[in-house]
Amino acid sequence: MRLRILAAALLAGCSSLPAIGVPQATQAVAAPSAARYSAAGLVYAFGSFKAGNAAILAYPGGKLVNTFSTGLGFGSVCSDNRGNVFVGGEAVSAAPVIAKYHYGATSPSKTVAFGSNGGVVSCTVDSATNDVAGVVEYGSSDYSVAVLPHFQHHPKVYRDAAIPIFLSVGYDGGGNLFLLGTNASRRTSLLAELPRGRDSFRAISLKLPSGRVRTVAWDGAELTLEGNYQALRAKSWPQVVYQLRISGTKAAIVKTIDFDGVDRSNKPPASTIAPALGIMAVPAGDIRIWGYPSGGKMIATFHTGVGPTYTATVAARSSQ
Q: How far is CA 151 from CA 31, 35, 306, in A?
C-alpha cells in the first residue's frame, strides 16, 4: 500500500479532520438474510493488498460463499458483534478510508474517508458504542490513531510520541482503547491505553517472553496480545496468545495459550479471535483455525482462492 508523509499542518495531540476523498454510498446496501448461509459465521480473507481482493468463506465448513474487491489500497479488516465488517485502507485520492459491510454483503453500506496521504493499517470496533478506531500510517515512523465516533465523519485523532511504530488497536469490554506498537528497532513491544472519556494515551508497563506480538484484542473476557514466541532449541515461532490483566498502568500475563502448528516467520500475522464461535483464525497463506481459548491443535485450514492471505476477520452475530 502506497503511503506518503502527512502535511505538517495536520495532527498535533488530539484533533478533528474533515472527511474528504471518497463519496458516501448513494444508498444503503441491504444486508443479506442470515438464512442464506448455512453457517455459524463468515470468514473474510483478504489477498492482494493492491486491489483489496477478498473471499467470504462459511464457518465451519470453509465453503466459498462469495468473492469481491474493495477497490482500495488495502490495509486492515475488523468486525463487530453484529456481524458487520469494516475494511480500512487507502482511497484512490490517497485519503485514509474505512468502509462498512453488512454481514455477507459484497458492497459497502457506508464509506468514511478522512485526512490525506495515508492509509488505515489496523482497525477495531467498540460494539457498545459503534465507535470505530484505526491506526493510520502516513509514512515510515509516522502514525496516528483515528477514532470515528459512532462511525461518523470528523474523527478524533491521537498521537503517542512514546511509541515509534504503531501495529494494532483494540477496544476492551469497557470501551477503553489499547494501542500496541514497538520501539524503532521493532525488538520491544510497547502498549498504551486511551481510557474511555480521556483525551490522551498513557503508557502501560508490559513484559513479555522472547518473541513478537502483532495484535491487541478483546476475547470476550480478557485483553489479549496475539503473536508468536521463539521456541527453545529450535528455529521456530509457535503461535501464542497472552491474556492480560490491566491494573492501573501495569499489564500482567494471567494466562498463556499455546497453539500447535509452526509459523516459521518471526513476523506474526494479524490474527483474529471470534469469541461468539470459540475460534481464532490466523491468515498465513491460507486461513488456519484453532479452538479458542482451548488452543492446542489446529482444527481446520481454509483455502481462500485469492492468493496468499494477508489478513482476515470472522463475522459472527453474538447472542448479546
A: 17, 27, 29
Maximum alpha-carbon separation in the chain: 58
Highest averaged pLDDT of the listed ranges 36-45, 47-56, 213-222, 256-265: 213-222
Among 108, 92, 112, 91, CA closest to 100? 108
Q: How far apart are CA 292 and CA 223, in angstroms?
A: 14
Q: How far apart are CA 137 and CA 91, in angstroms?
A: 13
Rg of the chain over CA atoms, in angstroms?
Answer: 18
* Cβ atoms 53, 306 nearer than 8 A: yes
User: Which tens digit of pLDDT belongs to each residue from 64-106?
Assistant: 999 998 888 878 999 999 999 999 999 988 999 999 999 999 9
Q: Other C-beta atoms within 10 Å of 257: how many?
A: 20
Q: Which strands sit side by side in the sheet containing 211-218, from one edge to the other?
A: 211-218, 223-229, 237-247, 250-263
Count of all residues that appear for the chain in the document: 320
The answer to whether the beta carbons of residues 290 and 244 sit under 8 Å apart is: no
Rounded to 5°, angle at Cα 19 from 32 and 109:
5
pLDDT digits (tens, 9 = 90+) for 173-229: 999 999 999 999 998 999 999 999 999 999 999 999 878 899 999 999 999 999 988
